[in-house]
């Protein structure tokens, strides 16, 4: 996601020329890897505003997420697969800040850049927030707080229709928000004083009918967050804590709010890297955890299947706020690859053919975004190493 700075306090992001935009697209297409996804963060060129970069205030120590020990055979294969991986990251992938790889329900590899990053460090996930928002919609669906993805949005936020008489607002369904097909032009900037302001979101001009075309748009995700909070009748962070995070053992997080006091949907969620991996495991398990269905399996399948062709900035297909790719898989294994991606190289990568989940965080800079080191690590190092080891 590209971030313009907050109004009146920081300069705006530089304008990207048409020629530069073409070069960026060519680079993205040239670096397409496993399943056709680009080795770039879901972001454009720009700087992250200071309000998004501040670390959350320290909270009470949390119980760390753990996994059961692997059997000796699998443990030996993991050791073989990841031999020398930490040294390579240290020496050659300076943008990468943390990595957690979980295979077959066991912690296979873990890395934190020292000094400064630890297992309990909260990481700014950037647009990974969008994919977690999609999971929360599934929780609300299971709870009966929303009736389905085809439900109209306006009855949940009737102020929309008082703010604007644009007829296309009446046509908006949750399906359009989840698939980034609301009809607004794509906007990948973030400005704290407007991002959770309903007036600013809905007064933007439509460029297409709802459902007609994909456009990666922060405003659409922020509108979904507002509507979902209204549907569940609680602040979104509270609902996430009780309904999603606590059952998964995630008891340390921070969810930034906009100037109006609402949790953002486009960005703002801070999590430990292990928590990111645990969320990937939930997706891999199609919403079931510890014998309990946290969200409907059919919804998770739809969320991580191609709903439309997608496009910029990742140039991959799109599901429900998850990037998706078809992947060759052995008989009986799922061929879906699901990806949550954020500015600079924040990833949750779910690869069912190997029963593998990888979470990675990176520096949040334009340079880190352009280099795509975390994506290269996942695609060229981790997946290939696990395949060769037979794990």
Outline the structure in words:
- This protein has 391 residues and is of the alpha+beta class.
- It has one domain: DD-peptidase/beta-lactamase superfamily (Beta-lactamase).
- It is built from 14 helices and 13 strands.
- The strands form three sheets. Strands 2-1-13-12-11-10-9-8 form an eight-stranded antiparallel beta sheet, sandwiched between helices. Strands 3-5-4 form a three-stranded antiparallel beta sheet.
- The protein is globular, with a radius of gyration of 20 Å.
- The two termini are 34 Å apart.
- Residues 1-59 have low confidence and may be disordered.
- Residues 98-379 form the Beta-lactamase-related domain.
- Keywords: Hydrolase.
Order of strands across the biggest sheet?
2-1-13-12-11-10-9-8
Which fold name is given in CATH as the topology?
Beta-lactamase
What is the makeup of the main sheet? 8 strands, antiparallel
Query: What would you say the CATH architecture is?
Result: 3-Layer(aba) Sandwich
Number of strands: 13
Q: If helices are DSSP runs of H or I spanning 4 or more residues, what is the number of helices?
A: 14
Give the low-pLDDT segments. Answer: 1-59
Question: What is the beta-strand fraction?
Answer: 5-15%
H/E element order? HHHHEEEHHHHHHEEHEEHEEEEEEHH
Amount of helix: 25-40%
Pfam family, one: Beta-lactamase
EC number: 3.-.-.-
Protein name: Serine hydrolase domain-containing protein
Biased composition (Low complexity): 1-15
Quick structural summary:
The protein is α+β, with helices and mostly antiparallel strands and 391 residues long.
